[in-house]
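Below is how a single chain appears once it has passed through the pipeline. First comes the sequence as given, then the structure the pipeline wrote out for it. We keep one example in the README because the format questions we get most often are answered faster by looking than by reading.
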Amino acid sequence: MMCSHSETAPSVVASLSDPGLIREQNQDSVLVHPLDSALLLAVCDGMGGGEGGEVASQLAVTSLLHGLASMEAPDNLEGLGRALDGAILGAHEVVQSMARERRLRGAGTTATVALVRGNWLVLGQVGDSRAYLLRGGQLGRLTRDQSLAQQLVEQGVLQPSELATFEHSNVILQAVGTGSPPVVDLTWAELRREDVLLLCSDGLWGEVTDEEIGRILREHDEPEAACEALVEAAKGAGGSDNISCVVARLKGHLPTISPGERVPGYRKLMFQDPAPPVLAEGASGAPYREDPARLAREEPVDLPMRRAPWWWAPLALAALAAGAGLLGWR
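Resulting structure:
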């Protein structure tokens, strides 16, 4: 078990990673690092036989740190999103190169990565580790699993109650370090004072219901105590996988919660201009600035999403891709 605690203005953060009760190796890696003007958090859940998954997740968090630590974090959502997207794609190349050199077939990792600057939160998602936000006692999920199971639930083929017995629940549709460069799912939220941010691997959310996660976060004000309680809950429910979580309680000069304000949900970050924004002070052109009024008009998307007309296609894709070794099995 690895546990860490730190105070980084404007937040108090703790992380914990445990192998669980079944697996000998811990293939999860967590990252908590204050940048010059932002906070970087990540959970990576490795995949691949032998040492492959463990090496892939550790290398991914190292690459993310190196890719982001030397920069001055942009002060707008689009700039933060582009920086995060580039860092995750860079980690993909590093992990893929390592796997090729060391002949670690199938080595890869999920990546759920958060950048917090001021009252902006930007998330980059590859795979099925998750991010949640607790606000005013209510828990919301900020990420969408890139998994076969999630896709089938959204399309109405599977009911949420059937996920526990679904044969292919461990199939993810893309990963850092395997196959083609992933399409990073970038999402965002505007933070409030005393929000609680949770990043976790499926070893936690696969064992503990969202309702129970919310209860634990409400009952433990200190992030370190919350991490310990979450891991113990997952182990008490079976502990069949590695369990990792990062909990951050946001403080400082953030807006307070408005009466009736709902907890954020899954909200995609859309770039207004395909060209990279001007970020450096003194560069030609004015720095890009987000329009908060425009962003406020974009409502979160509730999960699950509606059924698609070609609902049977993922099943056919799964059969073909599994036979060709294209999907990630964890």
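The longest strand covers residues 39-47.

See the next section for the split statistics.
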